[in-house]
Amino acid sequence: MISSELVTETWQRVASTEDDEAQMLIEQMTDEQPLLLAYLMAMGEQEPFDDHEGQMLFYLGLVVWQIMRECPTGLAEVTPEILELSEQENEKLLERLAGEDEESWERAFASLLAEYPEPEVLRYIVHALVDEEDYEEGDDPPMREECRSAAFLDLKTVLDALIASV
Predict the structure, then answer these.
(1) Mean pLDDT across the stretch 59-66?
(2) Which residues contact 157 (CB under 8 A, 6 or more apart)?
């Protein structure tokens, strides 16, 4: 299981990369996880995301991939079958929670975290999407509230596929 310290260390490392280093990360992802790269790019271009949110979704997916690369057993390349199964499972989760109130969502998330193989990585995703305290005036705005559920499911799909490829 990946520790919260490793999650923090990895996202800080990725956040501090220069443009040329970021390009190298993208090239590395192209080589190691081309399907996930394409998935993240496609998801970020779809409704309801605007350009900023699409870029944020891509960035967060890149960070999640970098965190999961730290697994001692390593990662295999995510296959179309693994990605499709992860997507289907997350769509079922969304269907179960459709129309539920915020309290039901919170209970479902707490239950999910208790059983999830990489809870700290999942916590990072949620924090990155909903925590507005980290944004200062002049920074890019956080993800709009109406986009957070879709972004969460897309990023959880990426994480689930990576977990399945460990």
Answers:
(1) 97
(2) 39, 83, 86, 87, 90
